Amino acid sequence: MSSEFSKKAVLRRLEHPYRFSGRELVRRLCLSVGLVQESDSRDVVVDILHSLLRSDVPLSHSEIARSVCTLRQRAGLDLKGCALSNIRRQTLRLRRFGFVEQCSRKYRAANIVDAFENFEKIYLSDMIRRVKDYCKAVESERNGKDVS
């Protein structure tokens, strides 16, 4: 979890996950942590994570690409974003977030709960503290005090 979230993070509160499964459940997770946007048609990152979660063994980039193409075809989705270069880029995003681990030259899904708890510990408290600093600065300026 390096620079992916050091400057910006998006968290969305979505409905409870109980009525979702499979790809849609993974998509909702990715939406809730800001890995994809609601209107994204290029949501191949969802299929990468879904492929790795379904696999019992670590996968290479080319194996991930094949799995992603298969999943997208079965779901009736465009094959946009299935190029190997994009698979590499999106896998790196998932690694930076902590959802994916590298083993030699292959990748596997990390424990998702542990990854998010790690994100929460490292980044969330710092972000909340920074927002509070901004709130205090705005109130100080509002009351005619110098912010700097």
Features:
148 residues, mainly alpha, Arc Repressor Mutant, subunit A, 5 helices, elongated
3D structure, described in words:
The structure is a single chain. The chain has 148 residues and is mostly helical. The chain has a single domain (3-110), classed as Winged helix-like DNA-binding domain superfamily/Winged helix DNA-binding domain (Arc Repressor Mutant, subunit A). It is built from five helices and two strands. The protein has helices at residues 22-32, 44-54, 61-74, 84-97, 112-142; strands at residues 100-103, 106-109. It has a two-stranded antiparallel ribbon with strand order 1-2. Strand 1 (100-103) and strand 2 form a beta hairpin. Helix 1 packs across helix 2 and helix 2 crosses helix 3 (61-74). The protein is elongated and about 60 Å long.
CATH homologous superfamily (4th level) name? Winged helix-like DNA-binding domain superfamily/Winged helix DNA-binding domain
What is the element string, with H for helices and E for strands? HHHHEEH
Taking pLDDT < 50 over at least 5 consecutive residues as the criterion, the unreliable ranges are none
Strand content is: 5-15%
- What helical percentage do the residues reach? 40-55%
Largest sheet: 2 strands, antiparallel
How many beta-strand runs?
2
* CATH-derived architecture: Orthogonal Bundle
Multimeric status of the protein: single chain
Instruction: Give the number of helices.
Output: 5
Which strand order spans the largest sheet, edge to edge or round the barrel? 1-2
Total count of domains = 1
What coarse outline follows from CA principal-axis ratios? elongated
Mean pLDDT: 88
Which structural category fits the helices and strands?
A: mainly alpha
